[in-house]
Design brief:
elongated, 107 residues, alpha+beta, 4 strands, 34% helix
Length: 107
């Protein structure tokens, strides 16, 4: 089983992205969060097609902290149904993966 997961999410503003990222890193739920400031999203919501500019968050966390990270993101996120997807990492640089686990183990 993988020791880390990459979690992706989108959000409506750079300010909100930085706020959530800072909270999750300071609470050791994420070791690192990359913020892509502009992504174009096309989706259907409540029967209408939407095209919006959003920010994307790419979070790295240990497998043991995924559930807690997802719950915290839901509580902090402004969307009614936020996109939060956790993807297990099959392989990676062992040193980096160990650092993610060590960093998110601090409580």
């Amino acid at each position: 089983m993988s020791s880390i997961n990459v979690v992706i999410s989108t959000i409506d503003s750079l300010e909100a992205a930085h706020e959530i990222a800072s909270r999750l890193v300071s609470d050791h739920l994420a070791a690192c969060v990359n913020i892509l400031p502009t992504v174009s999203s096309v989706y259907e919501w409540k029967g209408k097609i939407h095209q919006d500019q959003e920010c994307m968050l790419i979070l790295k966390t240990s497998t043991d902290r995924v559930d807690e990270l997802v719950e915290r993101m839901i509580s902090l996120h402004p969307y009614e149904v936020p996109e939060i997807l956790a993807i297990p990492v099959k392989k990676g640089h062992r040193g980096y993966m160990d650092w993610v686990v060590e960093t998110t183990d601090q409580q």
